[in-house]
Amino acid sequence: MKKLLFAIALVPLTFQAGHAADLGGGYCQLVQPSQLMTIESNSQLSDEVVRLMTEAVNVADDDRWIDSTSPAFTWASEAKVACGKAYGYLRTNTRDAENINKCECFHQRMVSYMY
Fold first, then answer.
1. Does the pTM of the predicted model rise above 0.85?
2. I need a labelling partner for 98 at 20 to 30 A (CA). Which of 12, 26, 28, 78 fits?
3. Gyration radius from the chain CA atoms
4. What is the pLDDT of residues 30-87, one digit of tens each?
């Protein structure tokens, strides 16, 4: 009986986590193709990715959004991770299109729920 209850408790969490980061589920259609990928200079691209990441970190750390019923906090959390990964790759002069696209997408989603 304990195993069954434990499995049932995990189902919603597994669905939500996979669902939030799903690029194919229509969440990123607002920003596809990524505008960030049109920036030719890796230095300028890094600056923009860091700007988006910093904004996401600020929202994810703000009690106003943490305590809100708005999904802005969730998307801020997703954006800061994706932007952090994109920035990490950029530090080695590698443009990781997947994380750059996620960074921009999740940041856009965050902003769309804030205003």
1. no
2. 12
3. 16
4. 545 679 999 999 999 999 999 999 999 999 999 999 999 999 999 999 999 999 999 9
State the Cα–Cα distance between residues 45 and 97, nearest whole angstrom: 12
Q: Which two tokens stand for residue 80?
A: 């800061």
CA nearest 75: which of 33, 115, 35, 32? 115
Phi/psi at 28 (5° precision): -105, 10
90 and 49 Cβ atoms separated by less than 8 Å: yes
Which tens digits make up the pLDDT trace of 60-69? 999 999 999 9
What is the SS3 string spanning the chain?
CHHHHHHHHHHHHHHHHHHHCCHHHCCCCCCCCCCHHHCCCHHHHHHHHHHHHHHHHHHHCCHHHHCCCCCHHHHHHHHHHHHHHHHHHHCCCCCCHHHHHHHHHHHHHHHHHHC
Between CA 2 and CA 87 the distance in angstroms is 43
